[in-house]
Write a structure and sequence with these properties.
Layout: H1 11-18, H2 22-29, H3 37-50, H4 56-63, E1 68-74, H5 82-94, E2 100-106, H6 113-122, E3 127-131, H7 138-145, E4 150-153, E5 163-167, H8 169-182, E6 187-191, H9 198-213, E7 217-218, H10 230-241, E8 249-252, H11 255-267, E9 277-282, H12 287-290, E10 295-298, H13 301-316, E11 325-328, E12 331-332
Parallel strand pairs: 1-2, 1-3, 3-4, 4-5, 5-11, 6-7, 6-8, 8-9, 9-10
Antiparallel strand pairs: 10-12
């Protein structure tokens, strides 16, 4: 008999509704290779319709697995669409598996090892996704030593092979400088991540190479980074543009930082696209709705989520880390103005 109202749906419930055996239902939900695709889809459809969830305590007792993937995100991640797009991408992949996503927030400025130690000590996840990678990242070393399957959004530089997906910030920064050169700009500033992160080094490398190759001058912007509070970036932008000594081109690694900077520039009476040109990365197409004059490059965070999820599942299944490394390149928005 199917579960009555208030009862937890079980494998027996799905078996009754599909006319299949309990063992077949269980293997279909586990994506067993000897179960046909049509049968798997029928079982999954019924499972979704009745709200079936595996008993995690029972699964853990039988298999030693939790069927949980932990996404460890800093609470100060990019505000404009980063977290939601990342989660969408990951869940698109996990929806066809037995795994569930649990988001574990933390404050990166404090000890970034705290959530990692907790996950490993409690055995609360079968795999971990982390972001904001440092060149010598203690989390990477710790999980490697503990044989915990993990994947990183970003690359380390510590001689440890690990699975990752990254955005090519070096190529982005170089192309951004090239675009500003095409716009006739000469004095270029860049808003970079804090120096402790790997993507700071990548962005810096591309920016410096672009400045050199296109014969431009860097306008130093050391007072702010993409993690500076937005109101401080706005105030800094206003003060900067009220000065006679100011840049005529900006490269930004963060969409939210760009919005704050533009607010400050406009408070100082500066016109975007006339007095100064801005190239900004964005994780969702929104900047050109606000300011069509901004030159924008899209970083596909949903794609990153999918790639991270696929790589982590492969690591859980024993695939070598060095075969699970990918980098996506910058894509200029179709809404961006032409140089």
């Amino acid at each position: 008999m199917p579960a009555t109202t208030g009862e937890r749906p079980t494998l027996k419930t799905i078996a009754y509704m599909t006319g299949l055996g309990i063992t077949t239902v269980s293997r279909a939900l586990k994506d067993a290779p000897d179960i046909g695709a049509e049968t798997k889809e029928r079982v999954r459809l019924i499972a979704r319709q009745i709200g079936y969830q595996p008993n995690r305590a029972g699964v853990r007792l039988r298999t030693g697995k939790t069927n949980v993937i932990a996404l460890v995100l800093s609470v100060d991640e990019e505000l404009m669409g980063f977290t939601s797009q990342m989660v969408f991408g990951i869940t698109e992949v996990l929806s066809a598996t037995q795994y569930h996503l649990v988001v574990t927030p933390h404050i990166h400025a404090k000890d970034s090892m705290v959530p990692i130690r907790y996950i490993l000590e409690t055995g609360s996840a079968d795999g971990v996704i982390i972001s904001k990678i440092e060149p010598n990242d203690p989390r990477v070393r710790f999980m490697t030593e503990r044989n915990m399957p993990f994947v990183t959004h970003g690359r380390s530089d510590m001689g440890i092979e690990h699975a990752f997906h990254d955005f090519d910030n070096e190529a982005y920064a170089y192309e951004a400088v090239e675009r500003l050169a095409q716009c006739g700009r000469k004095r270029i500033a860049v808003i970079v991540p804090p120096s402790r992160f790997s993507f700071h080094d990548h962005a810096r490398k591309g920016f410096n190479r672009g400045i050199r190759d296109f014969g431009l001058t860097e306008f130093p912007l050391d007072a702010i980074t993409i993690e500076t509070p937005l109101e401080k970036i706005r105030d800094f932008g206003r003060t900067l543009m009220q000065s006679a000594d100011r840049p005529d081109g900006i490269v930004s690694i963060s969409g939210s930082s760009t919005i704050a900077l533009v607010a400050g520039f406009e408070a100082a009476g500066v016109k975007i696209g006339e007095d100064v040109d801005i190239v900004s990365k964005q994780s969702a197409e929104f900047l050109n709705w606000i300011k069509p004059q901004i030159h924008t490059v899209n970083e596909d965070i949903k794609l990153a989520g999918r790639e991270l999820a696929k790589a982590l599942l492969a690591r859980i299944n024993g695939e070598a880390a060095e075969t699970l490394q990918s980098i996506s390149g910058p894509v200029w928005s179709s809404m961006a103005p032409k140089p």
